[in-house]
Design goal:
The chain crosses the membrane at residues 7-26. This protein has 241 residues and is of the alpha/beta class. The protein has helices at 2-29, 35-41, 77-85, 106-111, 125-136, 178-183, 221-239; strands at residues 45-46, 50-53, 62-66, 90-93, 118-123, 142-148, 165-170, 193-197. 36% of the residues lie in helices and 16% in strands.
Length: 241
């Protein structure tokens, strides 16, 4: 028994060190907001589960947003601020280690029993998790789902629902798996609204600099942020008619 303990203890310590090192690494490599995004973030309220951009309008649907993998919530502050200014409050979800897969149902905590209508969406991996949430919480309050450089997997398929869906992509996206994106269209309603931002890239759906593997954008980040906000607002306005 003592011999077994002498073997197990070093292994346990090594495992703990490995896990701790992994956590430190993920935190250190997370994409951080640009100066412009940090400025926009000042209009938000930080809560335990989200970065909240309030609106004076108390009738329009809430917007719940799941960030992409390893992207900090504040990185989406620019378009979120613009959408909130149009009357749609925005909640950018916070996840452990900035990974939506570690807390996919955080939207329930964000909504906190609210009876107000809402839409949910996400960027990249965040969109996949948001889609799964929507599939499992398709009720009268959920009014639509949106994707930014993202698509549903089979667990988040929405083709059998009547939910309005917006799919935003960018022509210079070098991170999105375009083949899988096309294949995943079978999981979306035939009424899905597809929009593409010409000259934009994957990282341009937020404001956190160049993402590994991405193509260089042919438009400024400010221009892409404005287009993201405009497309999302136009879609929301249609839902709110």
């Amino acid at each position: 028994m003592k011999k077994v303990k002498r073997i197990l203890w070093p292994l346990l310590i090594a495992l703990v060190v490995l896990i701790a090192g992994g956590i430190v690494y993920l935190k250190a490599t997370a994409y951080q907001p640009t100066t412009a995004a940090k400025t926009a973030e000042k209009s938000a309220q930080s809560t335990t589960n989200s970065l909240y951009f309030p609106s004076d309008d108390h009738q329009k649907p809430l917007v719940v947003f799941y960030p992409g993998a390893l992207v900090t919530p504040a990185s989406y502050s620019i378009w979120a601020q613009q959408v909130a200014a149009a009357g749609y409050p925005v909640y950018i979800a916070k996840f452990p280690l900035n990974l939506a897969v570690l807390s996919p149902n955080v939207a329930t905590k964000i909504l906190n029993g609210s009876k107000r209508d809402y839409v949910i969406g996400g960027h990249s991996l965040g969109g996949v998790m948001a889609s799964r949430y929507a599939k499992n919480h398709d009720d009268q309050q959920l009014k639509g789902v949106f994707y930014m450089a993202s698509y549903p997997d089979e667990k988040g398929r929405l083709d059998q629902t009547k939910l309005p869906v917006l799919s935003l992509t960018a022509s210079r996206d070098g991170v999105l798996n375009w083949s899988n994106y096309e294949k995943a269209k079978k999981y979306l309603p035939t009424t899905t609204n597809y929009q593409q931002i010409k000259g934009g890239n994957h990282g341009g759906f937020g404001s956190y600099g160049q993402q590994k593997g991405d193509h260089s954008a042919m438009i400024t980040n400010a221009a892409q942020q404005k287009q993201v906000a405009q497309d999302l607002i136009a879609w929301l306005n249609q839902l709110n008619q």
